[in-house]
Amino acid sequence: MTKRKNKISLLTLVLFSFTANAQEEASDSIGTNMLDEIVVEAPKVIRKPDMDVYYPSKSAVDNSKNGIQLLNNLMIPSMFVNDALGSVTAAGQSVQVRINGRQATIDQVRALLPETIKRVEWIENPSLIYNGANYVLNVIVANPTLGGSLMLRAMPSLNANFGNYNGNIKLNNGRSQWEIGLRYNPMYNVKIHRDYYELFNYPDGKSITRTEKPTGGHLDDSTGGANVSYNYVKPDTTIFVAEFNFHHVFPSAQEYNGLLSVSDRPETIRLKDATGTEGSTPSLSLYLQQNFNRNQTLVVDFKASYYSGRSWSEYIETPYEENLPGETMNDIYTNIKDRNQLYSVEADYIKKWGNGRFSTGVSYTANRNRSQYENLDDMIFHQRQDKVYFFAEYFHRFGNWTATAGMGVQYTDFLFKETNQGNNSWSPRPQASLTYSLSQNHNFRLNFTSWQSAPSLAETNIVPQQIDGLQWRVGNQNLKTSSSYMLTFIYGFNLARVTGTFGIRAYTSPNAITPLLYWDNDKLITTYENSTGGLQNLSFFLAPRVEIIKDGLMLSAYIQYRMEHMRGTGYDLRHNAWSGQGMVALQHWGFVLSAQYRYAQRDLWGEKISWGEDFNIIELSYNWKKWQFAVGCIMPFGKYDRGSKSLSKWYKNEQHTRMDMRMPYLQISYNLQWGHQKRGVQKLINSDSSVDKSTTGGR
Questions:
Q1: DSSP string, 347-387
Q2: Backbone phi, then psi, for 693, in 5-degree steps?
Q3: pTM of the entire structure?
Q4: Which backbone phi and psi does 227 adopt, to 5 degrees?
Q5: What are 199-248's pLDDT values in tens digits?
């Protein structure tokens, strides 16, 4: 399956204390049920027909000072949480994170008090209401009725300009809660280099090889922001949420320097290849949920965001002469200034019966993009993109079986104003699932889902961009929205000290939007196409969680083997690969020693295999009253590796990005809280909120 930056906090044992039934909704209360001094322990995971439910144990809460740390402590096997770099992934794919059903950012989850998290819902096969999400992680939270909380966190690296700093305050009064949060994530002048090799094959049989010997480089990638929110909760009747968020990307750059050897030239070439971006995105979100009698609910969600920023790239080649700069051979500069807007609204209706649930809804998303090309005499281009999505879905439970069936339809329309070129399409989105629960400890799920991927601004922009001395990129305005389909079988099991899942997943995207390479005289052009044949893959995965020593040692892992087949204009490729991750935690006397390792998934897309970060981390933490102290190291073992490999008949390329990521760090967290608990906001839907951006060229 293919749909388009990671520190690990402490990992502890998870021992759940509650009673529940897999076929019923979980209780809002958490903790240990006691009757006549007898403690009754329920299974570690409650497996429902449409999700797995994790309840935090007292141990997990006590060893956490924010929401992200608690997610790590739950050790959900197929999920990878990276607190340092701010990401949550599963099986190499993105995870849609929500708080009380409302889509949220990593920073918002980090700002949660562990004591207020009642349960975590893990959804591996999201329904149509989630509008094409790969995975959904929904954190259910209770808010105090009086008082408030203060959370502070600092995580500086000891040998690099890198860290994470967060502050959050919440004030409660009856049904209302106000929240203010600040965040700053510095990363600047971090040393970086790459290993790079490429081969150009011309149509006439001529070939050129270019080998890059790294001489240095650096990475700047600092971000910051603030958020203010208000929510009103009248239990069982009305929920209202208003939030303003501001996100800023400080001037960032990724620069590589090297010496380039070219097979048809005797001299060595000095090379500089850099890309960068900066900009700000203010956004506003409004949400209303109204419950009516007879188990009926109407929910409306609105978002508006505005992106103002720029992206740039610079590629310079000069002859190498000792102590002399030489004469410039190639000097390519691109600078795109964006002023892009997004507006989105969604309305859903939900009706529940004793054993059934009907959901239907409609959403509308409008992107209005304005791009100014400084390197092309400040030429301005406008793109308009509109999406409308309808869906209806029915869920029913009968005995040990449950079934869900639904249909969604998406209409996509985009247009470039200056050329009056564009495209539109209707795409169906069927979905169905069937679950059989043999018992609380064993269940089986069969799920079929589909989704659509609209062409991005970069893929459709027809303004030519030069990448280096030979390569150019240009978009294709004739692209159509692509469709993807996936069939998944999952077996979930709870044994004495082992819980987990085993699954098989089959995926196809017959008209996937992929890069297409071709020669135009002496220029190698990269454009985009709806590939003929597209991508198909079959994957097998196992995700166990093992309690090796009760209340002392826990292991969690995810292992996957995937076979892929990709077809497009002029190519037919196959690729098989292993991937996985593992987490282990040892706890004793208030100390937690944890470690995590990930071997990233290798993805075939178009004529390229690419992979994210191979990553490992180790940390020792200690909790004392309202404080937590930790010391750790990012990448203590091995080499940081992120890269790609091109398989085109016209262009062979392999690059490995290397970074000085062996970073020891300290972490100090402080939590102060007061007030009484009540049931919190549970937002059920979330409209689209991703404003589009331009991207510049880059090798």
A1: EEEEEE-SSEEEEEEEEEEEEEEEEEEGGGTTEEEEEEEEE
A2: -140, 155
A3: 0.79
A4: -145, 145
A5: 999 999 999 999 999 998 999 999 999 999 998 888 778 889 999 999 99
- Confidence at residue 692, expressed as pLDDT on a 0 to 100 scale: 63
Q: What is d(CA 263, CA 211) in angstroms, rounded to the nearest whole number?
A: 9
**pLDDT given for residue 90 in this prediction:** 80
d(CA 291, CA 293): 7
CA nearest neighbour of 225 among 144, 140, 325, 305: 305
Diameter over CA atoms, the chain: 88
User: Which residue from 122, 304, 233, 86 is spatially nearest to 683, judged by alpha carbons?
Assistant: 233
Contact partners, residue 219, CB within 8 Å, separation at least 6: 187, 188, 189, 190, 191, 192, 253, 254, 255, 659
Q: How far is CA 152 from its chain centroid?
A: 25
Rounded Cα gap, residues 394 and 267, in angstroms = 68
Mean pLDDT of 652-657: 90
- Residue 691, φ and ψ in degrees, nearest 5: -70, 140
The CA distance from 229 to 242, in Å, is 6
pLDDT score recorded for residue 11: 26
Distance CA(335)–CA(314), nearest Å, equals 9
CA angle 680, 683, 685 (to 5 degrees): 170
> d(Cα 254, Cα 274) in Å, to the nearest integer?
6
- How does pLDDT run across 516-563, given as a tens digit for each residue? 999 998 899 999 999 988 999 999 999 998 888 877 888 989 999 999
Closest CA to 646 of 687, 605, 612: 605
Rounded-to-integer distance, Cα 495 and Cα 44, Å: 9
pLDDT band at residue 685 under the 50/70/90 scheme:
low
**CB–CB of 371/694 below 8 Å?**
yes
| Cα–Cα distances in angstroms (integers) from residue 327 to residues 32, 210, 257, 320, 330, in the given order | 75, 20, 17, 9, 9
CA distances from 660 to 600, 657, 663 (A): 18, 10, 8
Phi, psi of 376 (to 5 degrees): -120, 50
Rounded to whole angstroms, how far apart are CA atoms 579 and 590? 33
Mean pLDDT of 75-90: 76
At 315, which helix (H) or strand (E)? strand 296-319
Question: Does residue 563 contact residue 539 with C-beta atoms inside 8 Å?
Answer: yes
DSSP H or E stretch at residue 388? strand 379-398
Contact criterion met (CB below 8 Å) for 644 and 608: yes
Residue 611, pLDDT > 60, answer: yes
Q: What mean pLDDT do residues 275-288 have? A: 95
From 137, 131, 132, select the one nearest 106 (Cα to Cα): 137
Distances (CA, A) of 271 to 320, 526, 650, 653: 9, 22, 23, 17
Distance of alpha carbon 488 from alpha carbon 1, whole angstroms: 11
Burial class (CB in 10 A: 0-12, 13-18, 19+), 315: buried
Contact in structure between 319 and 270 (CB atoms under 8 Å): yes
CB 95 within 8 A of CB 139: no
